[in-house]
Specification:
By secondary structure, the chain is mostly beta strands. It has one domain: Jelly Rolls (Sandwich). It contains no helices and 16 strands. Strands 1, 9, 10, 12 and 16 form a 5-stranded antiparallel β-sheet that branches. The protein has a 4-stranded mixed β-sheet with strand order 2-3-8-5, with no helix packed on it. Strands 4-7-6 form a 3-stranded antiparallel β-sheet, with no helix packed on it. β6 and β7 form a beta hairpin. The protein is flat, with a radius of gyration of 17 Å.
């Protein structure tokens, strides 16, 4: 049984939700929205090809998810890394994903009201016929907004609390955990990671 170590990546400032998300508009002279969304280009269709998206200046990522692809069919997963929401194509070509890449979507908030911490496990290794647990949690006073699954291998997980269409793992009592029930028949080591977005409100909105 292996427990993933918690790694604190970075601390940023963002704003709490105030209006409904729309596509981010970065044109000069356009008033910035409190929250907006931005969708990546489609990745390539070969194994391990990536796609990513980042927020405009003055915003930070508060949510990240797959919007095209499925971890059990065509995607390796999704993660928040270095201020990017990133997804990766898997090796499978099944059902309606044959010949298609993956896409991800980031939700961005303005950078002036909420502290945001991104946390990520180290790689959690496992081998043939080995069940492995990983757990991820936020620092004190922070609330986990999103927890994400990523691996170099798709279609091998037992989706316990995992939404395979978005790459999100269920958050329970301000933490998330993942149990891998290995089904591969090779002796080589495989791995996965969890990443999460944690927020702490430090101000108040004056209007909605």
């Amino acid at each position: 049984m292996a427990i993933a170590k918690l790694a604190l990546l970075t601390l940023l400032m963002v704003k709490i939700y105030a209006d409904s998300p729309e596509e981010c508009n970065t044109a000069i002279g356009v008033e910035k929205r409190d929250i907006c969304e931005i969708t990546s280009a489609e990745s390539g269709t070969r194994d391990d090809e990536k796609t990513s998206v980042s927020c405009p200046d003055g915003y930070s990522i508060v949510d990240c998810m797959l919007v095209q692809g499925d971890i059990l069919l065509s995607a390796d997963g999704v993660e928040v890394t270095d201020q990017h929401c990133e997804g990766q194509r898997g090796s499978e070509d099944q059902h309606n994903m044959a010949g298609k890449g993956v896409k991800v979507k980031a939700t961005c908030q303005r950078s002036d009201i909420t502290n945001v911490v991104y946390v990520k496990t180290e790689r959690v290794n496992y081998t043939k016929e080995e069940n492995v647990d990983a757990e991820l949690w936020c620092p004190p006073r922070y609330t986990m907004r999103t927890c994400l699954y990523f691996s170099g291998w798709n279609k091998i997980v037992s989706p316990n609390g995992l939404d395979t269409k978005t790459g999100k793992i269920m958050v329970v009592q301000n933490k998330c955990n993942m149990t891998i029930v290995s089904t591969h028949d090779k002796n080589n080591v495989r791995w996965f990671t969890l990443s999460a977005i944690c927020t702490e409100m430090v101000g108040f909105l004056l209007s909605y």
